[in-house]
Design a protein that fits this description.
Length: 127
């Protein structure tokens, strides 16, 4: 299996209004390190999993609307608990939309919440 990883970061604010989240129920900030890991059993005709420049460009495009935003104020997250796991899946879905017709394989999105915790979501990219 071949793998290529690209990395960006975003800074967000949000709250997690549920008793399970203790002090994180209040508005707080987070800086996420976002890794997009592209996997494929085969290389494409250019002998790469995905062009690294394209992967970086698409990841940046997906992250830009989230960066420096209060997620509580964004309509797509109304009524949602924007946990790290939830955001990993959201970013995965947005990247899959951008990748349509450009990549066939498997995508894993990892959000590093701190030096001791991370969450991820992974699945196939459908052509």
């Amino acid at each position: 299996m071949y793998r290529v990883c690209v990395r960006k970061h975003i800074m967000i604010a949000h709250s997690l209004p549920h008793p399970a989240f203790g002090p994180a129920q209040r508005l707080h900030g987070a800086t996420y390190i976002v890794d997009a890991i592209f996997s494929s059993a085969q290389l494409n005709e250019q002998q790469v999993v995905i062009d690294i420049g394209l992967a970086l460009e698409l990841l940046e495009r997906v992250l830009r609307p989230l960066d420096y935003q209060n997620l509580d104020e964004l309509p797509q997250f109304a009524g949602k608990l924007t946990t790290t796991e939830f955001l990993a899946r959201y970013i995965h879905e947005q990247l899959c939309n951008e990748l349509a017709g450009r990549f066939e394989g498997h995508l894993r999105v990892v959000l590093g919440e701190s030096h001791i915790a991370w969450a991820s979501y992974e699945g196939p990219v459908k052509v």
